[in-house]
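Entry type: protein chain
Record version: 2
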Amino acid sequence: MSSKIVGKSGTLIAEKTSVAAHHAQDDQGCTAPSNEQWLNEATRLERLHQSDPSQQLLRPLSYADYIQHVIDVSRPYYALSNEHEIIATDSHVRKGFACTVQAEMPLGREGGDMIFAEAGRHMAIAGSIAAALNNPVPGKFYYLALDAALARCPFEGIADALFGTTDVAVEGCSVICCQCMEITARSATCEIRLESSHTLSAWHLKVQYAVIPEKAFKKMYPPTGQSQGLLSPSAQSPYACFRGLPMPPKKLIAQGASSQTPISVQMEARMPPPDAVQCAGHFDGNPALPIAFMCAYMADLVGQSIADLVGVDIPFNPSRTTCPFQNFLQLNTWKINAKKLVFAGSHGLIMACKAWLVQGDRSAHRSLYGCELTIKAEDSQKGIAIASGTFYLERGALVDVVEDQGRKHQGNGSARLPSRL
């Protein structure tokens, strides 16, 4: 069976063949294509391609037939669509991976197209596919994100560059493009870009993975079976149901000239042991809390810490639409180093955050704040992750606010836009 992707001018861009027909069987019963088969496919596609040889070919990939057999995550944590391998027609070399994705998590205390934790989640998964495409060893591997650096960057319009001459519908979606920069027997490094709209900055992520064969991972962490039958196909993704920290954080220290004008604040939050639902799709058979989902809780703590520091409200927005009348944070940079997996039911977490003013006037629009965070196991006090970042404070539009007593003044209104959830 085959189908063709045809450009707007009628030019044949690529011929889509059943991925299963090109798979090789590995020693574990999983399927994975060999380098020679991919090279032959790229050569065959190039012969069909009659346009500029410097252009790229997009070879469709199937999640069911290929992707789920080579990486460690599954649905609903895996939420990518329109998956394609990028092949450079002039070199016959696999160049990268491209796909689309739609945001599902609420914005929380951030604004824009999606929270940085969700952007990092989808980008890191895409990067693991790029690494798998370049892995010379067939079979399924666990690509564990150890070190990641995320930042906002200028919009470049990669959607048109990648899918402009195909029938892939990208309207209303974010587009991801990534490349595996290096892969060895034990590690991989990928760079990933995500863009949503020309009105918003893009995301850039550089991530280093630990590469562990499936058999070795299951020997280190034997399956517990907790995720079996966890969610029905019609159930809502637990990640879309995110509502922030389960308990309010506690202020530890406020440092500064006076308690009224601190220059930094330290706060602590505690989380109970994660349950299997919170880890759905992140290691079937032995669910572990995704580091990207952990970042969503860290972002909530950052937002509450900065709000306490500057003395303004940064409310939790349960929708995926930025409210122009509310204060929110906009990520500038973020780095995280993950040290230990947190399996479902294992132990609670202690999150500590220090936040301070970096640039601008305290509580002013577009003032910049820095933060440092640590996560430890509640029982053993062992380190789970450390992170640092910078965030802009975006002040909501000033409107006429009418108080309960009928008095009117200028302030930040609390009106909400309709939720898309």
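Comment: The helical segments are 35-48, 116-134, 158-163, 214-220, 291-310.
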